[in-house]
Structures are given as structure tokens and as C-alpha cells.
Amino acid sequence: MKISFVIALLAAIVITASPVSDAPVFAQSSPPGKTYTPKPGSKERKAIMDALRKPVTNRVKKPIIFQVGSLKVRDGWAFFQGIAQNKNGSQLSDKHLWGETSALLRKQGGAWKVLHWGFATDPSVADAAKQKFPRAPKSIYP
């Protein structure tokens, strides 16, 4: 009986000392499991917009800004929907894009990375991102 008690006690110590999860921890401004929108002007929002600005600028071959329609973040994942505009705020010409900009991003190694993005007037970009990255939280999508 004493041996089984010692084994149980050792097992309890090992379990208590073990990490709860091997999942990566992401720096964020809200507790894990909460979906939120980073505030305008925040470092997190700027980092997300800067990450997305790179591929969009490469595609349209000119500097752009975004008019944010929706931006949701949860557990190191983000989904953006909005309008890419010229740096002065005017609309881009149709030769550069078709519809609004949508993108799925993931925070990896302390930086936001664009996993999937595109221009569309329908939910096709979000639908493709959901299919390609099924582990992204459903609550970040529109």
C-alpha cells in the first residue's frame, strides 16, 4: 500500500510540473481564446497591415494603404477584409484589382505572415482560406 501511495505521489508531481500544452504562445493584447479587433494605431494592427501591404504592393506595383472593413484576431491568427487604396486615399483603378482585399495571417516567430490573400467581390478568398487552413479559428472570419 505504501509503494502505490509513493507512485501516485510521484505521478502527481510529474503531472503538475509538466507544461499544460505544447501549443505555441503568441503575444497578443487579449487573453487566449478571445476574438478581438486591434485598436487603430496599435502596434499589433500596424504589424498586421504592414505584413499584408507587402504582397498587395507587389501586385499593384504602387504604395497603398488600407481602409479596414473587418479585422479579427484570435490566438495568433488574423483575418482582414477591406479596401486597398492609393496612398492618398483615392481608389485604385480596376486594372489593379477586382473587389475588396481579404487575407488570412498568422503570427509566427514574433512576426505576422500572410498565409492566403486575394481580391474578390464574394466570400471566395475566405472560403479558400478556411479550406486550406482548417485550424484557423472560425470566429475570425466574417
Properties at a glance:
single chain, 142 residues, alpha+beta, four-stranded antiparallel β-sheet, 3 helices, globular
Quick synopsis:
This protein is α+β, with helices and mostly antiparallel strands. The chain has helices at 2-17, 43-60, 124-132; strands spanning 64-74, 77-86, 100-108, 111-120. The protein has one domain (27-140).
Q: What multimeric state do the chains show?
A: single chain
Order of helices and strands: HHEEEEH
- DSSP summary, beta strand count: 4
What is the count of distinct domains? Answer: 1
Strand content: 25-35%
Strand order of the largest sheet: 1-2-3-4
Number of helices: 3
Q: Which residue ranges are poorly predicted, with pLDDT under 50 across at least 5 consecutive positions?
A: 1-29
Shape: globular
Largest sheet: 4 strands, antiparallel
Helix and strand content put the structural class at: alpha+beta
Alpha-carbon Rg, integer: 21 Å
* Euclidean distance between termini CA atoms: 58 Å
> Fraction of residues in helices?
25-40%
Mean of all residue-level pLDDT scores = 80
How does the SSE layout of this entry go?
Layout lengths: L1 H16 L25 H18 L3 E11 L2 E10 L13 E9 L2 E10 L3 H9 L10
Overview of the molecule:
- The protein has helices at residues 2-17, 43-60, 124-132; strands spanning 64-74, 77-86, 100-108, 111-120.
- It has three helices and four strands.
- The chain has 142 residues and is α+β, with helices and mostly antiparallel strands.
- The longest helix has 18 residues, at 43-60.
- The protein has one domain.
- Helices cover 30% and strands 28% of the residues.
- The relative contact order is 0.15.
